[in-house]
Design goal:
CATH superfamily of the largest domain: FAD/NAD(P)-binding domain
Order of helices and strands: EHEEHHEEHEHEEHEEEEEHEEEEHEEEHH
Oligomer: single chain
CATH class of the largest domain: Alpha Beta
Distance between the termini: 35 Å
Strand order of the largest sheet: 6-7-5-15-16-17-14-18
Radius of gyration: 21 Å
Strand content: 25-35%
Shape: globular
Helix content: 25-40%
Structural class: alpha+beta
Largest sheet: 8 strands, mixed
Length: 370
């Protein structure tokens, strides 16, 4: 009889986990309180850009992100094949720009440690930048050019993941409302608001920003908190943008549908996903310094999603020490899309008995705050 895994949460991490488990022959059920991908996942810009996102040092989180990036080319093909749905996956490369000569030294330091991990990035000066990105502002003095970074169209990716899960026999229950873990030590029983009951052999917590609600249940600290990320998008029209563009202020990501995604303005607002004038103004006020043509444009779409941030910035990933049938895979902050491939396979490895490498297991241990 196949082992039955219950995945609590149907965001991109929950879907990726269910997909990986189903490919290895496990019976899988997803329980989602609203709709799959309805929070941080579907609202993401879809960046696969660990070099741009992580600038300080090569900690375990960076190496985990880089591993996921390098899995993604094959992973996205597997998702497309299993779902029968195509979605945008663009190996655009990226440019991380600076505006002052004094910042070039920081770029050199950043490239130095990134090259230790196989990066072929280089610093490009102003004259060469114009050939790569003609619409870039004359204020930009230099940039790190990385060919390896990519992006997906997040809404379609989430739809494809969900369909791939369904095609693999995963049972998906949406709009369940609040889910209570009735018992979990000797037997696993979960109940929905309407009283529907679900049992299984193992539970994987992929609840994102709502994971903190389970602290009392499992008697451990789960410091995962919602951070509202506000994003806007422009119609590009005749203008052309070739790369992911990042700076200390945020990012701009061109999509195949002719739009440009601009993010992200972050604030603490509980579980509110309301878009605010102040939040979008933060984006509009800096983006024209990178792409001057945006001065003439107005965002045609604005939205917000909740990012599950942890106290130390690392996700919770792994089994409880005394109860290994309870597995956490949550707290991926703004890297859920990027980390979906690696996390899904990591959870499947844990269930299969392979486990995580020691460094990752220590850094991401779900009981490290208790």
């Amino acid at each position: 009889m196949k082992e039955h895994i219950v995945v609590l949460g149907g965001g991109v991490i929950g879907l990726a986990t269910a997909f990986s488990l189903s490919r290895r022959g496990y019976e899988v059920t997803i329980l989602e309180k609203t709709t799959c991908g309805g929070q941080a996942s579907g609202a993401a810009a879809g960046m696969l850009a660990p070099y741009s996102e992580i600038s300080e040092d090569p900690d375990p989180f960076f190496t985990f992100c880089l591993s996921s990036l390098r899995m993604f080319k094959e992973w996205q093909q597997d998702v497309k094949h299993a779902s029968g749905i195509d979605f945008e996956y663009t190996e655009s490369g990226s440019l991380h720009v600076v505006y002052h000569e004094s910042d070039i030294l920081a770029l050199e330091s950043r490239i130095a440690w990134q090259k230790q991990f196989g990066s072929e990035a280089e610093i490009v000066d102003h004259n060469r930048l114009k050939a790569l990105e003609p619409n870039l502002s004359d204020d930009v003095v230099a940039a790190i050019h990385s060919n390896e970074e990519s992006h997906v169209f997040a809404p379609d990716y989430v739809i494809a993941l969900k369909t791939a899960c369904e095609n693999n026999g995963v049972n998906i229950y949406e709009n369940t409302g609040s889910i209570t873990v009735e018992s979990w030590i000797s037997s696993l029983v979960l109940k929905t608001e309407e009283g529907a009951s679900f049992t299984g052999d193992r539970l994987v917590i992929c609840s994102g920003a709502w994971s903190n609600e389970l602290e009392e249940t499992f008697d451990i600290r789960i410091p995962v908190f919602p951070i509202r990320g506000q994003i806007c998008a422009y119609e590009l029209g005749q203008e052309k943008v070739n790369h992911i563009l990042t700076s200390s202020q945020g990012y701009l990501v061109p999509k195949e549908n002719g739009t440009l995604v601009n993010g992200a303005s972050e604030d603490i607002a509980g579980f509110s996903t309301t878009v605010t004038e102040k939040g979008i103004s933060r984006l509009v006020n800096w983006n024209k310094r990178m792409l001057p043509f945006l001065e003439r444009k107005t965002p045609f779409h604005t939205w917000a999603g909740l990012r599950p941030a942890t106290q130390d910035g690392f996700p919770l990933l792994g089994s409880l020490e005394e109860h290994p049938h309870i597995i956490f895979a949550t707290g991926h902050y703004r890297n859920g899309i990027l980390l979906s491939a690696k996390t899904g396979e990591a959870v499947a490895d844990i269930v299969s008995g392979t486990g995580l490498d020691p460094e990752t297991a220590r850094a991401f241990h779900p009981e490290r705050f208790s």
